Structure to design on (259 residues):
């Protein structure tokens, strides 16, 4: 009887330990899209620099984090309905702040205009876009940025289902002889290289920005969002983030000052 009681107490202690560990390591679900070179699927798993940065921060916090790569509209829909804890890579905007808590930017990026090779166009401000036909992927941060840029300018934007379609249509002259593409520069260069496309040239940087991880407000408290942000920035200051990003040849964002 004494042995059974001892075993019973041991079993209870093990259950209590597992329950405590479970409480200490919350499961957080994140979604992203196929958006190389930032996020992509590799051998059925999420991969890319944003994925690596998030995983490293989750390890630091001892959180159990799952990351799923989905088509963008499906991923965004799940985030908007509060079915997941976070989504990335996301550009912070005033409209999105109503629904999400954003980490500090993690990877620097820029929006660039591309033209067909041999064209003389050079971007010199929004007025230089007057009368232009511009292809852009959307709905996305890119299309929102172009819409903001084009306020007060008479241009015709073509919203396409993906960035590759934008590049192919521009090369094929589908936006006219003077057509342009508005795109994340690193994404454009990646697609041109991967698909062996030629006939385009950069025509000017429009805007520099940084990609963040967005936490869904209805699922993630301000305290937990702050904890994730602080873990990401601690990894940044230790050099861990730069080490993880280096393999992808992308620019790491500057570390935010400690709170």
């Amino acid at each position: 009887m004494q042995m059974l009681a001892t075993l019973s107490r041991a079993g209870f202690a093990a259950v209590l330990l597992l329950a405590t560990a479970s409480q200490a390591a919350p499961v957080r679900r994140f979604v992203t899209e196929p958006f190389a070179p930032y996020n992509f699927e590799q051998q059925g798993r999420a991969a890319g620099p944003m994925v690596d940065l998030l995983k490293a921060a989750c390890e630091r916090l001892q959180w159990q984090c799952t990351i799923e790569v989905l088509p963008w509209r499906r991923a965004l829909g799940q985030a908007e309905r509060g079915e997941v804890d976070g989504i990335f890579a996301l550009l912070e905007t005033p409209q999105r702040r109503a629904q999400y808590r954003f980490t500090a930017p993690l990877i620097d990026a820029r929006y660039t205009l591309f033209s067909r090779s041999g064209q003389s166009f050079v971007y010199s401000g929004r007025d230089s876009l007057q009368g232009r036909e511009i292809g852009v992927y959307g709905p996305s941060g890119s299309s929102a940025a172009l819409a903001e840029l084009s306020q007060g300018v008479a241009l015709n934007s073509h919203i396409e289902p993906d960035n590759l379609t934008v590049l192919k249509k521009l090369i094929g002259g589908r936006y006219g002889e003077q057509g342009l593409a508005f795109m994340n520069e690193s994404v454009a260069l990646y697609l041109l290289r991967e698909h062996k496309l030629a006939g385009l040239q950069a025509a000017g940087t429009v805007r520099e920005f940084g990609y963040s991880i967005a936490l869904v407000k209805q699922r993630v408290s301000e305290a937990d969002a702050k904890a994730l942000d602080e873990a990401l920035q601690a990894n940044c200051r230790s050099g861990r983030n730069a080490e993880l990003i280096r393999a992808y040849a992308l620019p790491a964002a500057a570390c935010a000052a400690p709170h």
Q: What stands out?
A: Residues 3-7, 13-22 have pLDDT under 50 and may be disordered. The CA atoms of residues 66 and 239 lie 24 Å apart. Residues 24-107+210-246 form a domain with the D-Maltodextrin-Binding Protein; domain 2 fold (CATH 3.40.190.10).
